[in-house]
Amino acid sequence: MSRRLANPTEDPLWLKLTLGIIAVGFIAIMLLLPLVLVFKEALASGVKTFFSAMVEPDTLAAVKLSLLAAAIAVPLNTVFGIAAAWSIAKFDFRGKTFLVTLIDLPFSVSPVVAGLVYVLVFGMQGWLGPTLAGYDIRILFSLPGIVLATIFVTFPFVARELIPLMVDQGRDEEEAAATLGASGFQTFLRVTLPNIKWGLLYGILLCNARALGEFGAVSVLSGHIRGQTNTMPLHVQLLYDNYDYAGAFAVAALLAMLALLTLALKSFLEWRYADELAASHRH
Amino acid sequence: MSAIGLKIPLPKSRHVLPGFGLSLGFTIFYLTSLVLIPLLALVLRPFELGLDGMWNAISTPRVMASLRLSFGMALAAAVIDSVFGFIIAWVLVRYRFPGKALLDAVIDLPFALPTAVAGIALSTLYAPTGWIGSILMEHGIKIAYTPWGVLVAMIFISLPFTVRTVQPVLSEIGRDMEEAAATLGATRLQSIGRVVLPMMLPAILTGAAMAFARAAGEYGSIIFIAGNIPAVSEIAPLLIVIKLEQYDYAGAAAVGVVMLAASFIMLLALNGLQSWAAKRR
Predict the structure, then answer these.
(1) pTM (2 decimals)?
(2) CA B169 to CA B105: how far, in whole Å?
């Protein structure tokens, strides 16, 4: 009897158990174990060592530099994301699909290649390097280089969240506002922004996480000067290569906590504002 | 509009909304100056060597070995992640169990965790003295500081791509085809293998392509665990960094152009896959 009532698209128990154990086991070993190890190693030599590694001047300088680079790169990419989404979602023009593909391009480029391209433009053997050196402007191995690398690798985050969202929402509300005499800025601020605010926040959140964590591109452009051009991830490498494991894992734990915070906020946004995010109805 | 016959003077601008010129202009300016021109600098650079020179720069055993390692292991990682990614997506979409939301959130950890942190964690974990490395060592298996270390790091870094492309498609497809298959006497495994899997193929391939692209270009998490032995466990992005440190700009650019060409091919493949998937619906 129960056989006939069983849902034909329901997996049998043995299959559920097998697949469930494979999935949970894979996630536990591949993803959770490394995370647990970071915190275990960070606290291995005691809480005191952990905190003294944190307040070390070079570590603090690295934290400051990472925050500064993100504070410049994220707002710029946010303005770009809004402008790109506004032009793509609210107007018709030729080559739109191509433009969207180009905006996504930095995602498929290796971070090291991202660093390399700026060396080829701003390096001493590069296109602009000798000219800029004449004016005493340094791009490579200083803050501008780090910011450029960060901008490149986080380039599409805000745009690719806003574009599908604003395309979905259409133009009616903005057109109504414009017809009623609202200026462009008023229309954006009072009509568009309330509609996209959670998607915008979602994009900024992911952009910021990547900006603080970027390693490859920044590594090529930073010059690794301790206390000056070392970001947090680069500082992890420097400490690790110098066999200061306690210090390396202390900074790594700080970055891991940041990652967990990002994941928590991301999950919260996806759960609470699912209808107002593009990510949750992307195909 | 004018078909109604009323003579309404058309506004000067073709657009009702303002800001078209400004927003598109800024978008194109920003994209061109920060992404396209620098990429052009990379594409043009190796031509200083001439075609022969570029071929000479790439065809050295060390460069060829690094390209083979990066792309070969990325392919292996993409296949492994596609299998486990599908299983994980299946479990998350079809089964109900406590802690599911948490498991779902953890999938994105490789996106959120800085790659350097993942690198030192994986390296410590799989080193001969590490939690996993010491167990494998008893069976004579070495992961850290060998090419297998590269594979492990790539599997870690690329997993979210495969899960996150399959998961939404899997939750959208209806179950009527499976019901039909079951009615016609298919066993559960037959329905999954012959009905669900073929329907999911475009999404699985898309995820695999994204995983491959990410793994082939990955640097941060790999250099800690790989040991970086030239021609053995040295990945192509690392070779670019090494060539830059030796001021061999053209050589670095030659390897970079190969990597970039691979990115373009993957991007084209992804676009092709998407239009294929759209047609099948």
Answers:
(1) 0.87
(2) 18
